[in-house]
Amino acid sequence: MSEYHVPVLLKESVDALITNTSGTYIDATYGGGGHSAEILSRLSPDGRLIAFDRDSDALAGGVDDPRLTLIHNNFRFVHNFALLEAHKAARDFRECGVDGILADLGVSSHQFDTAERGFSFRYDAPLDMRMNTQAELTAADVVNTYEQDELEQIFRLYGEVENSRRLAALVVAAREKGQIRTTGDLDAAIKPVLPPYAEHKYLAKVYQALRIEVNQEMRSLGKFLDGAAKSLKPGGRLVVITYHSLEDRMVKNFIKSGNVGGTVEKDVYGRSETPLRALDRKPVLPQESEIASNTRARSAKLRTAEKPLPAGKERRKQDGGR
Questions:
Q1: How confident is the model at residue 55 (pLDDT cuts 50, 70, 90)?
Q2: How many CB atoms are closer than 10 A to CB 267?
Q3: Integer Cα distance of 152 and 163 in angstroms
Q4: Measured distance CA(226)–CA(254) in Å, rounded
Q5: CA distance linking residue 44 with residue 62, whole number of Å
Q6: What are the tens digits of pLDDT across the range 192-219?
Q7: What would the pLDDT profile of 271-300 be if each residue is shown by its tens digit?
Q8: Distance between CA 13 and CA 11 in Å, rounded?
Q9: pLDDT class of 42 with cuts at 50, 70, 90
């Protein structure tokens, strides 16, 4: 396995995921193969793993295992590919589905630490931030072409930046003097709003907001959650690791209600129509020892949900299989 990324909550996430060692699983965010390697180590020779990543760098190394199928694509298409794999195996997907799906929503260590990818304010590099390097939109495009009110909304919604209006105004004022092309250009443009003794925390919010917009992360997450619920077989599990409040709220809402808005819909009999049920009252957090060895784990939260068995099967299971 490569050192592309140090997997977070590795044991906890895979413990929650695996219920059938001969089953079929999806690692929706391969990221160099850390979680995939652990999943495969728990599976029997009959088990299978399908892994997604939109970053070609993530797929370049990692795990070599005949049970693993790598897919270079956005995890928002998880259901499409799950259907395709079922078709290849000549199975009725509606009856089968997959046994579990894992998604680690964090940016990889490799992406943060590779200066030319433009994810980090630690380096003066092109303002890029594309997870898929073949995509057209870059962070430079966002800061140089979006209207001021659009920038304000992005900084407020995706970065939860307190003074997003002034921040957006500074960006627009700076680009009128010359294109903002590098991380250094951006940092210099917004220097007047950087709070004393908390510059890095503020910049992290700004860069998070731009990264989310460039990669359409919230839209992709919503599509993924819907597709994941459809792709699971009854009894199958969805395990998601989040790193900031926006995505964690979406995951929590979806598990609760079946939609990212959190509105529980009911049928004509007043029964809740939710595709999943939460297995934990509260998210699982990293141990202090993990945070000490990998500071990027400090904001991680793990949530696990299960697709319920049909009511009749649940009753038979409770009655000892009668």
A1: confident
A2: 8
A3: 9
A4: 8
A5: 20
A6: 999 998 999 999 999 999 999 999 999 9
A7: 677 899 999 999 999 999 999 998 889 999
A8: 6
A9: very high
**In this structure, what token pair is assigned to residue 1?**
């396995």
Q: From residue 266, give the alpha-carbon distance in Å to each of 145, 197, 257, 277.
A: 43, 49, 10, 15
> Which amino acid is residue 293, in one-letter code?
S
CB-based burial, 307-321: b 16+ in 10 Å, e otherwise: beeeeeeeeeeeeee
305 neighbors 235 (Cβ within 8 angstroms): no
For residue 172, the Cα-to-chain-centroid distance in whole angstroms is 30
Place of tokens 């659009």: 150
Which of 101, 115, 124, 120 minimizes the C-alpha distance to 52? 101
* Cα dist from 124 to 209, 211, 231, whole Å: 18, 16, 42
Look up residue 47 and give its two tokens.
Answer: 């088990």
Q: Kindly report the number of other CB atoms within 10 A of residue 109's CB atom.
A: 18
> CA-CA distance, 123 to 112, in Å (whole number)?
10
Amino acid identity of 43?
L
Q: Which residues pair with 284 in a beta bridge?
A: 302
